[in-house]
Design goal:
The chain is α+β, with helices and mostly antiparallel strands. About 15% of the residues lie in helices and about 15% in strands.
Length: about 120
């Protein structure tokens, strides 16, 4: 999804809150959260909406690439995405905030539903 503010909507998941693209862009600084060197152009659902994902901030990554699935967004839709945490299986029972992704510098990162990124897994409350 681009950052036009209208959001993603479907009958099952509803519309993404209008403020979420801005929160994700602020977290990323406008750069791809996987490669860190190319401006991000897409908001990607790590657990796809079609596979039970939701519009929660821990499920959203700001990635480079186009609608043709190029760049890091394209990689997320391959087997590599599952290996590095940019895609999460519908069968994974853990919430997105408990599942890390790895950037291209090899750093493990966790996202939370307040829109923050962490270098360590946040402790459950």
């Amino acid at each position: 999804m681009g950052e036009g503010g209208r959001g993603v909507s479907n009958k099952r998941t509803g519309r993404m809150p209008a403020e979420y693209p801005g929160i994700v862009a602020e977290r990323s600084g406008g750069m791809c959260e996987r490669c860190l060197v190319v401006p991000a152009t897409q908001i990607h659902h790590r657990r796809y909406l079609s596979r039970g994902g939701k519009h929660n901030l821990a499920n959203l990554l700001h990635l480079c690439g186009s609608g043709n699935f190029e760049g890091c967004h394209g990689e997320a839709h391959t087997g590599i995405g599952g290996e590095v945490g940019t895609s999460i299986s519908r069968h994974n029972p853990f919430p997105e905030s408990a599942i890390s992704y790895t950037d291209l510098l090899g750093r493990e990162r966790w996202l939370d539903d307040s829109g923050l990124r962490h270098d360590r897994q946040p402790q459950p409350y």
